[in-house]
Amino acid sequence: MSNGFDRTLSDEDVLRRRASLLQRMHLDGILLLLLLILATGSLFILYSASGKNIDLLMKQASSFGIGLVAMVIIAQIEPRFMARWVPLAYVGGVALLFVVDVMGHNAMGATRWINIPGVIRFQPSEFMKIIMPATMAWYLSKRSLPPSLKHIFVCLMLIGVPVVLILVQPDLGTSLLVVTSGAFVMFMAGLQWRWILGAAAALVPVAVAMWFFVLHQYQKQRVLTFLNPESDPLGSGWNIIQSKAAIGSGGVLGKGWLMGTQSHLDFLPESHTDFIIAVLAEEFGLVGVCLLLLVYLLLICRGLVITVQAQTLFGKLMAGAWTMTFFVYVFVNIGMVSGLLPVVGVPLPFISYGGTSLITLLSGFGVLMSIHTHRKWIAQV
Amino acid sequence: MPQPIRLKDHEKDARLIRRRAMVGGAVIVALIMVLISRLYYLQVVQYEYHSTLSENNRVHVQPIPPNRGLIYDRNGVLIADNRPSFSLTLTRERAGDWEHVLDVIVDVLGLTPDDRELFEKRVRQGRRPFEPVPVLFELNEEQIARLAINQFQLPGVDVSAQLVRHYPQGEHFAHSVGYVGRINETELKKLDPVQYSGTHHIGKTGIERYYEDQLHGEVGYEEVETNARGRVLRVLNHTDPKPGEDIVLTLDIKLQAAAEKALGGRRGAIVAIQPKTGEVLAMVSQPSFDPNPFVTGISFKAYAELRDSIDRPLFNRVLRGLYPPGSTIKPMMAIAGLDAGVVTPNSRVFDPGFYQLPNNTHKYRNWNRYGDGWVDMDTALMRSNDTYFYDLAHKLGIDRMHDYMTKFGLGQRVSLDMFEETAGLMPSRDWKRSRYRQAWYPGETLILGIGQGYMQTTPLQLAQAVSLVASKGKWIRPHLAKTVGDVPPVDENPVEDIVLRDPKYWDYARHGMEEVVNGARGTARKIGAASVYRIAGKSGTAQVVAIKQGEKYDRSKVRERHRDHALFVGFAPASDPEIAVAVMVENGESGSGVAAPVMKEVMDAWLLDENGQLKAEYAPQVAAPAVEAQTKNE
């Protein structure tokens, strides 16, 4: 261990000298580079997907700017300090969700927004995606690992409250993602395999119960349509049929930027939000999608490296859970657009149009950077 | 916790987390491989398939709208059918600068800027990509030819044949059958987008609206292959639409025509109900309007003319017209009085020409200022004596009166399948307290007894109330649909029959009503004299403006539109009623003089054959009394 430690120290020393500015700004060069690549790429795709809508592009770019600022600010905060404020953020987040349920702004049949006209309009459930893993990490980092039954129960309660509030909105997609992000912390914290397998087995009756008691008609429709999209070609099956056709017709190399016919002829619904990957696949082909997946994979690898190298338990749990949640976004979105999973309304990270999601994601990576750049070299001895 | 153990824990935790991170990483890589293989499958293995779908030839799913169900009268005469009509459609995606294309259309066909505005609105309502939106209906040959010549400068414009609703009977059924119109944005939000994906019209009022779901049918669709310019190359898959259900109405086209003729161009309403079945045989609200322009989109000007007309042709007087029922409720009041035990058939009241509450100087006047002397129930109904009914109302009290009148459907929605029926108003203590924050005054009970005051009823309610007297309390909601897709409509919310303490009470009231028409001093004896069958009826007058205490109604002083509405309700043949009718003539002044002859014409049309004799099926039971009635009046 001491040998390894020496080597790590000297390596880091070199890196610190080489990239001293980034280090002093508490930014991680690799993450930053990958994020900037994604952002640039996303603007190109969005330009095409939105039908050359410059206004939309400017909005997305400015959201990206705001997100970057948020990321930089968060990266300055020490993880220890962060952990101290997590419970408050959790309580605040739950309170906001409650406010949304009671008096939120209604759009498209669901109440998800808080709207203070002229000031701000956002989805509190979106922020829960980052507050949730942080809360779990805060809670479990103070216990001995792996967590005991009692602590698991507390964790489930902590996850349950906001999830129910989001389900009421109703927003099945986000609530599942919030559950997932919390569950990943428990996974990282060494939840015994028998519990994990047991939960997976219990999922079947829970899913059946959800079908009958929790799911709204439109959500059931989505699942049914997923199982057999051809059954409803005029209604919700349309999205899946069209997105599959868009992806498939892209072939290996794609039709070229701005040349996608499916998306440009308005065949593809929501082409600039949840279904944007279909535009990418149509215009840049399998190669383009693989490149995007490669960038995602690199981001995830970097996240896992940060997880392993983190010094505090809070940092490890938080970084690991966030990285895996991030992957779930990618997987669920691409899976749904390509017809592997039911349509659940999850945006593709960094590529889909949408300010709140972008800011949340960048904040999450700000946390990773903070965890990585605030390590103390002496303390570990 | 001791320090050494804590350190050891930390080490163990780090190992645990590293292990978990590696497991996670492995799963992530595996799942990414799943995604890549899925994309490989779609983009490489199925490339040919999807690229055919997408690139040169595109597959469109085209909805095929179901044919709307037809509407017939009870004899099978068509009232609403679907006629092929050529319409001009515009496909926004293929038109490029579609606003410019609209300009060209307006130019080529020589239309007005108003039309263009309408077109633009319609195009903007288009929903599905590549959906041709109809903008102009009922093209004539010349217009089609002009469009064909200018095809080169009209990208995305097609002339297509569609089935469009048509009402061959024009204005005769506008208020009962209603009409369809283009789906507007509010309706669009509530509709099932799949079922209506090929449909441009929806029932707006009347039967068309009430039975919209049954009339509409189920959408079909076909998957068609089109070339890059959107032209259909071949049909890949075809699912037939299920046409909507046909509706046979209870209305009789001949009776309807006779009723309209009887009203003779006056404003008013007529409802004829078959008491045994609740079937509405005729439903007239005059003036009416031609529903056909509403189907294809009525012009702003024509609509404004209808809307702003002082005669209010768009107003459905049968279902939404509110009138104080006047003396027409006296038979129902008599039944209530008998059943409640406050009067007997023989109890009498002295009428000096007015009625006074104890310890009150206010005089409630009889219409006959000289008074009718001693009156019993029979005479009171025959003479429409107000004093008798003031007294009856006073004894009955508002609470019991409210209960009984509600049982007769007054102040209630009575119909089974009529759209936008108004409930009207049967006042009660509770209603007055919540509406005016005032207690109920005894005087208000008195004037309710002769159907004036707060009470508001529709002609349909009056028809139903008199039909209940005819059927001795058998409640069947009046309905317009005899069958919907060969199935009679079901009343989900049936009303309890009216059961009296003694069924003879019905006969006392009915006898009074027969005397109105056949008695020597009956108010409507004129129509009885000319009738070959026996009619039971009751006249009524609905005040439009209040007459002050001590003042007399003087027609020369009242403007034509402020004159009283004439009401008459009745049924025939009196012993075994086949038809119950309510007539309202707006500003007609005299129930017996104006409305009663109208009612008789309607009854004649239903009951008499072409020789002026009672139809065979109605004859046996009533032949004798009819003759007797005639001799009596001669």
Automatic annotation (TrEMBL), chain A:
Pfam families: FTSW_RODA_SPOVE. Peptidoglycan polymerase that is essential for cell wall elongation. Keywords: Cell inner membrane, Cell membrane, Cell shape, Cell wall biogenesis/degradation, Glycosyltransferase, Membrane, Peptidoglycan synthesis, Transferase, Transmembrane, Transmembrane helix. It catalyses: [GlcNAc-(1->4)-Mur2Ac(oyl-L-Ala-gamma-D-Glu-L-Lys-D-Ala-D-Ala)](n)-di-trans,octa-cis-undecaprenyl diphosphate + beta-D-GlcNAc-(1->4)-Mur2Ac(oyl-L-Ala-gamma-D-Glu-L-Lys-D-Ala-D-Ala)-di-trans,octa-cis-undecaprenyl diphosphate = [GlcNAc-(1->4)-Mur2Ac(oyl-L-Ala-gamma-D-Glu-L-Lys-D-Ala-D-Ala)](n+1)-di-trans,octa-cis-undecaprenyl diphosphate + di-trans,octa-cis-undecaprenyl diphosphate + H(+). Its EC number is 2.4.99.28. It comes from Pseudomonas marincola. Belongs to the SEDS family. MrdB/RodA subfamily. GO terms for biological process: cell division; cell wall organization; peptidoglycan biosynthetic process; regulation of cell shape. This is Peptidoglycan glycosyltransferase MrdB.
